[in-house]
Amino acid sequence: MRFLVDAQLPPALARWLTAAGHTSEHVFDCELTTASDDVIWDHAVQTTAVLITKDEDFASRRALAEGPPTVVWVRFGNTRRRGLLARMNMALPDIVAAIERGDTLIEIY
Predict the structure, then answer these.
(1) Model-level pTM greater than 0.90?
(2) What is the mean pLDDT of the chain?
(3) Are 6 and 30 in contact (CB under 8 A)?
(4) Least C-beta-crowded within 10 Å: which of 29, 61, 87, 101?
């Protein structure tokens, strides 16, 4: 599975996803750190990546759009990197299952 991690989340999440066997990059890796939402969205579409974000704008856009990308909306508050990765570790099997069944907006609490 391919993931694109948005700027509000640390690059460590992309590295962790790669270590877990997925293809993953952070917007920093693509030189999109300061890019508009439109540019990030288009990059996710072009690379067939699932967009992982804390940005509600992407979740709203996903609810209205047809076609890709799938959006994983991280809805819990700010946390240290270790806490984030622990929560994502627990959620990853459910995220993958939701993507495989065709869900296009996946909320993580």
Answers:
(1) yes
(2) 97
(3) no
(4) 101
